[in-house]
Amino acid sequence: MNQLANKTALVTGGTSGIGLATAQRLADEGAHVFLTGRRQEALDAAVASIGDAATGVRGDVSRPEDLEAVVAAIQTRGEGLDVVFANAGGGEFAALPEITPEHLQTTFGINVFGTVYTVQAVLPLLNEEASIVLMGSTAAHNGTPAFSAYSASKAAIRSFGRTWAAELAGRGIRVNTVAPGSTETPGLKGLAPSGQEQPMLDEMVAATPLGRLGRPEEVAAAVVFLASNQSSFLTGTELFVDGGAEQI
């Protein structure tokens, strides 16, 4: 505990699932955590669940103007920024003939553009030896039918992680990517058509060597590791939290 005492962290998309679990864990480790989310009610509930160690700022990461409020809130605290978890993202199934400009714009707008905008916005606030953790996915490494836009967006995240690690090494800033596999979150269940949730989850479990879905808290533990001095000699890497799905 207290691996991140007196540190300041930012978690985008921090109102549910992996984002919320990570925000809670960062706070448990001593950090003050700024959370973003698009829905005020969900944001307020997340902050209330964490307590005084959390500050919520409503915003959509795909809109650079929304990130101005996030930057202003962090600046008001006056202690810079030590940890960034660029977590906000999402996706939905669409087979190749069904992909529309709107589908691409939504998927890349949040997952790709939003990640770039977030990291760009907070660069001036980052303290020496800060840690940036990007939200990747095992989807970037396999060919899941009807999931090409999402998978491509996460492949871009993996590339950003390598390049930004090289760009920011001179400032002592580390950049790593966490790649969850099938994890039990509201977003995962929401991918399936109505009535098909359980068959989809059963298929995912069958494809995971450990024989179960991951838990948000398990991904959060990996993010804390990458955010803390426990990983002080890691940068540009990708940490899989997938029950062995991409390794075995």
- CATH class categorisation: Alpha Beta
- Total helices: the number is 8
- Molecular shape: globular
Whole-number mean pLDDT: 95
What does the main sheet amount to?
7 strands, parallel
CATH topology: Rossmann fold
What are the main properties of this structure?
7-stranded parallel sheet; alpha/beta; Rossmann fold; 248 residues; 8 helices
Provide a brief overview of the structure.
This protein has 248 residues and is of the alpha/beta class.
List the SSEs and their pairings.
Elements: E1 8-11, H1 17-28, E2 32-37, H2 40-50, E3 54-58, H3 64-77, E4 81-86, H4 101-122, E5 126-135, H5 148-168, E6 174-180, H6 186-189, H7 197-206, H8 216-227, E7 238-241
Parallel strand pairs: 1-2, 1-4, 2-3, 4-5, 5-6, 6-7
Helix pairs in contact: 1-8, 3-4, 4-5
What does this structure look like?
This protein has 248 residues and is α/β, with parallel strands linked by helices. The chain has one domain (8-240): 3-Layer(aba) Sandwich (Rossmann fold). The protein is built from eight helices and seven strands, in the order βαβαβαβαβαβαααβ. It has helices at 17-28, 40-50, 64-77, 101-122, 148-168, 186-189, 197-206, 216-227, and strands at residues 8-11, 32-37, 54-58, 81-86, 126-135, 174-180, 238-241. It has a seven-stranded parallel beta sheet with strand order 3-2-1-4-5-6-7, sandwiched between helices. Helix 1 (17-28) links the parallel strand 1 and strand 2. Helix 1 crosses helix 8 (216-227) and helix 3 (64-77) packs parallel to helix 4. The longest helix has 22 residues, at 101-122. The radius of gyration is 17 Å and the shape is globular. The two termini are 32 Å apart. The model has no long low-confidence stretch (mean pLDDT 95).
